[in-house]
Amino acid sequence: MVVTVKKTDPVTLEVVSNxxxxxxxxxxxxxxxxxxxxxxxxxxxxxxxxxxAKGQLIAQADHVPSHQGSLAFAARxxxxxxxxxxxxxxxxxxxxxxxxxxxxxxxxxPIFVDGILCALSAALGHHIDVGGRSPGSISSDARDVFxxxxxxxxxxLYRKGxxxxxxxxxxxxxxxxxxKTMGDIRAEIAxxxxxxxxxxxxxxKYGRLELQATIEVCLDNSEQLMREDLARLPDGSFSxxxxxxxxxxxxxxVPVTVNITKKGSDVVVDFSGSSPQxxxxxxxxxxxxxxxxxxGVRYMVSPLIMQNEGCYRPIQVVRPEGTIVNPRRPAPIxxxxxxxxxxxxxIVLAFNSIRGDxxxxxxxxxxxxxxxDGVDNQSGRPFVCFEIFGGGWxxxxxxxxxxxxxxxxxxxxxxxxxxxxxxxPLRVENYNLIADSGGAGxxxxxxxxxRNTRYLAEQGRYTNRSETSRFPPPGVLxxxxxxxxxxxxxxxxxxxxxxxxxxxxxxxxxxDRIEMAQPGGGGYGRxxxxxxxxxxxxxxxxxxTSRAVLDVYAVVIxxxxxxxxxxxxxxxxxxxxxx
Length: 579
Fold this sequence. Notes:
Elements: H1 10-34, H2 38-41, E1 46-52, E2 57-60, H3 70-81, E3 89-92, E4 104-113, E5 116-126, E6 155-159, E7 162-163, H4 165-172, H5 178-206, H6 208-231, E8 236-244, E9 254-263, E10 266-270, H7 286-298, E11 315-318, H8 336-352, E12 368-375, E13 382-389, H9 417-423, E14 426-433, E15 449-455, E16 459-465, E17 486-490, E18 496-499, E19 502-509, E20 513-517, H10 532-540, H11 546-551, E21 557-558, E22 563-564, H12 566-578
């Protein structure tokens, strides 16, 4: 398919495109700097975007990739089903009606210019708690959507500038830490108000109709660039299957299969062969499936292409009904991030089959969710701590994978230890990279990490969602797999309790410690082809052990003098090849 882009002043096109991106970046900065909870202000589990009046994405900044399609589905639903007035504010989190999962609360504000609805300003934040059966609203064993927290359909929180207090009262009555939730909702409202102001400024400068016409060209331009990049890849049909450790209830692995057909510049992603919908909460909402597909395909093209609705036009998705990617109501859905990360990683694995040497090893492909609650001994107030963690990225032909980073779909930050210890009765006693956790290869997988957290309140509950304990990230082209994840509880008295990758509402007490080991990424190419200087540097940094240096990489280091012996290394590798 060939896209004809209308002629427009290229300078105006660049100025408008980048102004819109700048506006959504400012929205995101406003949200983070005014948020109350650590998950928003420190971890940046939030996004902001602008849409046209039809709900088409016109600008999204470099926030969380899993939100890129999510906001669009909600925007279209609002545009199609609601009558909007100036100064309205809409709130929703309904996972079956445009939302993602319960903790992600979406806020929209319509943008009017000269009395005409022109656009929607949107923000999404992962809230620290929205009720449900487990603190942090991340139960790993929920069996329907009603167990997972408060469900908010699209409602007007402000009508023509007037707050509807009953909605906030309803939310406040259903969450464990209402001051945090209410503060974060106000932060989202501040963000969408910034978006409204910036769009109106641009419309005043260029004129309402001229701006809308320029935006249409922006969308067409992104589509054209996407199609040009996709057309360079070989045509064909190819597939891959990834697995979740379990669905949180049974121990049966859950397959996610992607079948990709690429013809010219069109891509069809078909999930036939994937698991039927599961009993636990790891089914994937509509918006989240599309987010994962969009991100997975976008990783195959230039990152410089402006992110908007045009990027998605070459992509079609097939979701068989009753499967993990198209569950029937009221299937539980709050663990959908685990599944969408697996979708994106599996799409990359499928594309590997046509990328020759330019393949990508698997990385962490999940987010480990950590939640505890209790009563703070000093303040006497209840608390909920919710954190998220990544692991190692897969290596590529261009270099080693990133160490201890979030996966393909998160783009978040670790919460600083100082922020955790100031905010909660927790003490982080160890937090370090794990030597040898990255899959060995010509280029090494990124390292996973170990964290040991002591619980200091009197008694509370611990909930964990993690992955890769049974399916460590594989390497490519001879590269080795990264190490799997693991968790265990060390009681204050010293008793050790190994934990599964998913556990809900485990009782913990003062002095108990929660140990987490996050996975390393897969390696690229054969380990004995790795540059000895890189192995030596890793050894000096403590990223690989002396055993791995010799036995895996076949590199000789004089540990007494801490010097690399290149001649001995050459002879050793030559003898191993000859043998």
